[in-house]
Amino acid sequence: MFDSLKSKLRGVRGRFSREIEDSFIEEVAGDKENISQTPEITSKAIFETPSEEISAKIQPSGTTESPDKKGPEEPSEPKKGKVAFSAKIRSLVKDHEVHISEKKIEGPLQDLEIVLLENDVALQTVDAISGRMRNDLTGSTKKIGTSIDTMVMDALRDALLDVLGEGFSLITYIDSHDHPVKILFTGVNGAGKTTTIAKVAAYLKQEGYSVVIGSGDTFRAGANQQMQTHADRVGVKVIRHQEGADPSAVLYDAVEYAKAHDIDVVLADTAGRFHNRANLMNQLAKIRRVFNPDIVAYVDEAVAGNDAVIRAEEFNNAVGTDVVVLTKADMDTRGGAAISIAHTIGRPIMFLGTGQGYTDIVPFEPKAVVSDLLGDE
Ligand SMILES: Nc1nc2c(ncn2[C@@H]2O[C@H](COP(=O)(O)OP(=O)(O)OP(=O)(O)O)[C@@H](O)[C@H]2O)c(=O)[nH]1
Ligand SMILES: [Mg+2]
């Protein structure tokens, strides 16, 4: 999942770290000439080396002798410049602080923006991530924790978490609302609505909830049978009418069945449709009015990238959306839709579909997704 984005982010992180490392060394050494003469000094080495050794390696400006030549004939009193210089190094090393200028990270920020855009992250989301990185890393003196790479990782993690938002726990929602909880699944043709409903039914059964499915796709030939086959496999009751029947009536019956049988959750399927088909969108608005869902879940394919983000926005404007399900994340190397959609439409992702099996569904937990993207252990 999201392999292309993961590897590109690793590269960009490296560039941020190198630029910041340079800033650190420049600050420690005082001028660039000294750095080029002491290429073995890296921030890592600085952190791990006692400050006396570092001050012995870096020559202050205007000092000509090399530490290697330091012999018994060296004056016992160090020169004034050297004392001041080593004190500065000591304080910097002790507190691990560095001043990072905006100019210094302009290059890596541009790299980051390109990587995100290439991986289908929406422009406004790219701007938000990049802006947060700039704010976090630059400006006043920055305290470095354990390492520069950790500092960059933390900034990237916070920026990604910002755009992913809080996520949405279906279990928490069900536990805190009256039953039956009614969930309407909407979306374009072939996005994975019917399969997702079967997966969610299996997931909820596993979690101890009772479920009924309303087969609200009365439009496509074979849709009823497809839903029935899935439901039989996961052991869940389906309420269905004839092909061509009014989907609102089917879903109304599903709710009546749930009430009569003390069912916890009603999952309502709908026919796939595109937002620009006015008659079908009007039908969806009617379904919404009659079924009166607690949650409208917009389903789209993660692999559709930016298209999924645009469609999600259009569905949200037309009939409303509460949460998003992104299917086929297993086939998505870019991750753009997963990163952008919540930020763009202001609705959380509820699940990721990760395969064609009934257990291939994971609740979307922003922290876990970001850890995976950043390659945490
Ligand atoms: N790899 C993968 N395939 C999936 C996933 N979810 C659904 N699919 C496949 O996508 C195809 C379409 O799934 P459906 O559930 O029929 O999609 P739909 O949105 O109900 O389609 P319509 O009813 O025609 O609008 C099927 O072949 C599914 O097996 C997923 O998470 N990963
Ligand atoms: Mg379907």
TrEMBL record:
GO terms for cellular component: cytoplasm; plasma membrane. Residues 31-82 are annotated as: Disordered. GO terms for biological process: SRP-dependent cotranslational protein targeting to membrane. InterPro entries: AAA+_ATPase (IPR003593), P-loop_NTPase (IPR027417), Signal_recog_particl_SRP54_hlx (IPR013822), SR_rcpt_FtsY (IPR004390), SRP/SRP_N (IPR036225), SRP54_GTPase_dom (IPR000897), SRP54_N_sf (IPR042101). Its main location: membrane. Residues 66-80 have a biased composition (Basic and acidic residues). It catalyses: GTP + H2O = GDP + phosphate + H(+). It comes from the Archaea. Residues 348-361 form the SRP54-type proteins GTP-binding domain. It is found in: Cell membrane; Cytoplasm. GTP binds at residues 187-194, 269-273, 327-330. It is a peripheral membrane protein. It is an enzyme of class 3 (hydrolase). Its EC number is 3.6.5.4. Keywords: Cell membrane, Cytoplasm, GTP-binding, Hydrolase, Membrane, Nucleotide-binding, Receptor. One of its GO terms (molecular function) is GTP binding. HAMAP family: FtsY. PANTHER family: SIGNAL RECOGNITION PARTICLE RECEPTOR SUBUNIT ALPHA. NCBIfam families: ftsY. Involved in targeting and insertion of nascent membrane proteins into the cytoplasmic membrane. Acts as a receptor for the complex formed by the signal recognition particle (SRP) and the ribosome-nascent chain (RNC). Part of the signal recognition particle protein translocation system, which is composed of SRP and FtsY. Belongs to the GTP-binding SRP family. FtsY subfamily. This is Signal recognition particle receptor FtsY. It comes from Methanogenium marinum. The gene is ftsY.
